[in-house]
Amino acid sequence: MPELPEVEALAHHLREHAVYRPVARVDLASMSALKTFDPPVSALTGRVVTGASRFGKFLSVDFADRPDEPVHLVTHLSRAGWLRWHATAGATPPKPGRGPLQLRVHLDAVGGPGFDLTEAGTQKRLAVYLVTDPAQVPGIARLGPDALELTRAGLDELLDGDNRRLKTLLTDQRTLAGIGNAYSDEILHTARLSPYAVGARLDEAARDRLSAALHAVLTDAVERSVGQGAAELKGEKRSGLRVHARTGLPCPVCGDTVREVSFAERSFQYCPTCQTGGKPLADRRLSRLVR
Q1: Preceding peptide of 39 cis, ω within 30°
Q2: DSSP per position, 117-143
Q3: CA atoms within 13 A on the CB side of 186
Q4: Between 20 and 30 A from 254 (CA), which of 101, 143, 265, 269?
Q5: Pick the CATH number of 147-275 from 3.30.450.20, 3.40.47.10, 1.10.10.10, 1.10.8.50
Q6: What is the chain's alpha carbon radius of gyration, rounded to the nearest angstrom?
Q7: Spatial distance between the Cα atoms of 88 and 100, rounded to a whole number of angstroms
Q8: Where in the chain is the domain with CATH 3.20.190.10?
Q9: Boundaries of CATH 1.10.8.50 in the chain?
Q10: Distance, CA of 83 to CA of 170 (rounded, Å)
Q11: How confident is the model at residue 115 (pLDDT cuts 50, 70, 90)?
């Protein structure tokens, strides 16, 4: 799933390549992806791209023909979605329901440059909204503070009284916006904290480590990602991970074997030596730290 660093990089890529270009046509290949109906996607035709921005893990592409009438194409890429930039594209409108293409935006001219929103797999969760204000998107309206802007004092406010496990707390977008499964694993590993540690019970030293790790991991990932082409971002993300998706491999810090806990449709990875005092976490649903 694209998280804060990748979405920030995609927004930067669009600002570099799409701004000041007019929309020639929009092809909607999946009606189920579009979550709004007014204004229609045809309203983008003739409008000019004026910017791109990020709200948590939401990407907003901004359009205007007059400054007082902005329109925003907002997307949440979910687990298997992506934005692909193209220099040229087919002029024939795509057939609905065929392949991964969900929406295509032609810029300058039909068949010219632009971008596609695609989604792999059979579970179609990518969402597209066309709104006059990004805050009209329910998911954006519910977002907590942005993870990159969270201060040490702000972290205390989030943790105090919250008895959820850190893994759950960090990935709840209503609590903290932008962090998903991969970067929460990386942040907790860097902070030397168990995924099952309870937020409200962390002492000052642990909170200091969590705050420092959160900013270091995300800032490093953004710096590595921004400037990369959209096609290279997934590989760049994988290359910077130390524990996530590295089950069975040695921890780059201590050499212990990276372990995995699976639950529902997801899993997370951690290092027992670095994070749980050498104790493995039980790999079953609703598991608790083995004491």
Answers
A1: yes
A2: EEE-SS----EEEEESSGGGSHHHHT-
A3: 23
A4: 265
A5: 1.10.8.50
A6: 20
A7: 18
A8: 4-141
A9: 147-275
A10: 25
A11: very high
- In this predicted structure, what is the pLDDT of residue 227? 82
Distance CA 5, CA 184 (A): 12
Tell me how far apart the alpha carbons of residues 244 and 67 are, in angstroms, rounded to a whole number: 43
- Compute the distance between CA of residue 173 and CA of residue 158 in angstroms, rounded to an integer: 12
- Is 104 exposed, middle or buried (CB count within 10 Å of its CB: 0-12, 13-18, 19+)? buried
**Dist CA 81 CA 189 (whole Å):** 27
Q: Which strands make up the sheet holding 101-107, listed edge to edge? A: 23-28, 101-107, 114-119, 81-86
Q: What is the pLDDT of residue 257?
A: 97
More confident residue, 235 or 57: 57
Average pLDDT over the chain, rounded to whole? 92
Instruction: Please tell me the pTM assigned to this model.
Output: 0.92
Query: How distant is the alpha carbon of residue 66 from its chain centre?
Result: 30
Q: What share of the chain is helix, strand, coil (3-state, %, to 5)?
A: 35, 25, 45
